[in-house]
Description:
The protein has 503 residues and is α/β, with parallel strands linked by helices.
Amino acid sequence: MTVSDPGSSSLLLRRAGIDTYQQPVVYMHRDCAVCRAEGFAALTRIEVHVGERSLVATLNVVVDDWLPTHEAALSEAAWNRLRPQPGERAKFAHPEPARSAGALRRKVFGGRLDDDDYRTLIEDVVGDRLSELELAAFVTACAGDRLDGVETISLTRAMLEAGERLDWGAGPVLDKHCVGGLPGNRTTPIVVAIVAALGHRIPKTSSRAITSPAGTADTMEVIAPVALDLPTMRRVVEHEGGCIVWGGKVRLSPADDVLIRVERPLDFDSDGQLVASVLSKKLAAGSSHVLIDIPVGATAKVRSDGAADALAQRLQTTADALGLRLRVHRSDGRQPVGVGIGPVLEARDVLQVLRNDPGAPVDLRERALDIAGALLDMVGSEGRQRAKRTLDSGAALAKFMAICAAQGGFREPQLASFRHEVVTDRDGTVAEIDNRRLARVAKLAGAPLSASAGVDCRTRIGDELRRGEPLFTVYAASQGELDYALDYVAAQPGIVALQEPTV
Length: 503
């Protein structure tokens, strides 16, 4: 498109002050000249030009008078991408059709795509040339078993090629990842501290929560800054050997950030997309040796040994095809790990373990040692013994505090002001804990957006409880959020299921 002098075909830009997450959105009045001349309608994809800068955004149409007809408003995502100056105008046009439209349609109707198809699709994803509806169609078309092993490799390679790739030089670069689905399983900060304290490089990029009450980045952010750019991340790793940063800021696999944006409201992902997401980020971060933790349990993300076998095989096959050394570690996914569920509560547990606090959650400590040991065994021997000595001696804590300082400074997490203890109404032995519903309670209480919200669950399978004893405690930043979570608890008996005592 040729951009001409500003006139009736351009609009003055203003900031809408509306958070649309990562999706660029433009707002126009339905009676504005541009909207009428171009035939724009609600949810139309439009190309926006501001000087030499441009992007493709989704149009929302305004029907009352808060927006004048000579102005266009930009969502926060669009405003931050275009960075318009005061009084600057924009021109608008219909974008060229996405090159991947044919491939997307084939996938929706059950077809298989090749390397070139996925490369074109991911280029369009990163270039914002696909609408949210088209992205949702792609995510859905790949769900379940509709993305085979060969396609998973193609998708992973395309996602890797779409972003930057770090090179740390010769020698092993370690990393770990948990596939998720287990509340409170916040081993990463402990593992990074142990591995880095032993002199290994472990540049850990982590995600924010997608369907859980907290991601590693959410938890770490209440302790230290995580939104580091690539140069800062590199300085931290070169100085301290490790880091724990938000992957969305460094954009090592930018297509994954967009797909996560769509998966979040859909509240699901698939094995193929999970593998592509995880391994593209590990490869982009320059990792050479990666350990994947797969918790298995009836209410975890991976619910059976058969499902774990299938996921492990797909991870291994994809890693082998892309030259990554990978080891799968299976763990118990029947119940939460640690006590806290939610960013601040999980951060408290992490610090207790690193500080060798007598009240630290034993299960979180032991699981972190298992994972750190297995990861260290990929490049040596006696990994668990070395990990334990490093944690017990305080060397892991010292390294963690040094990493926090390098990332911008340590801060002590603060618990929420409002809390309510949920108690059992009868005697019994804890037979089952529903991970999914317990995580739902934490989310309804406000986590992860309210970092101090969540659930404290000190109950474990096999515990004997008497009537009136606590099952878990709900934390919230306001009484309204606390009440909202407790209404759900009242409607969901059996989140912690008790077995009647035998006579």
